[in-house]
Structures are given as structure tokens and as C-alpha cells.
Amino acid sequence: MLALKAICIAFSTYSIVPVPRFEWKEDAMRYSLGAFPLVGVLLGCALFLWFLVCIVLHCGNVLFATVATAIPFLVTGGIHMDGFCDT
Fold this sequence. Notes:
By secondary structure, the chain is mostly helical.
């Protein structure tokens, strides 16, 4: 159950994927750091799915690149762009 809490905390922090809400206790927060790469796996799967759709539909490179650039912003809610703009 602790692993599920850690995964939900990671997804609620770095994505807009709806997950069950848990109380953010220190033990679950400690393990959430190990679940952050799962958000990256979700992003990679979304990009790969978009790549497969473009192959099947014979989309142009510009369309592929435009949507592939937007997918991380859509999945993460732009949290990484906020940090980029701050620097």
C-alpha cells in the first residue's frame, strides 16, 4: 500500500493524471522519489503512441514535431515549463 501511495503522490505532483488522494505523510513522500520516473514512462508512452499514429496516418514531420512538443506540456500541466521560465 505504501508503494501505491508513493506512486499516487508522484503522479499528483508532476502530472495532471487523476489519481486517488492520499495524505502526504513522510513515509510515503520518502518513496515517492522512486516513483517519479513512472511519470517519464507515461510521457514516453504518450509520445510513442503519437509516433505510431503519425506512421499509420502518414502525417508530416511538422505536425509530428508540433504535437510531440505539446504532449509533455499537456501531460504534466506545464510544470517543467514553469521552472524553465523561472530560470
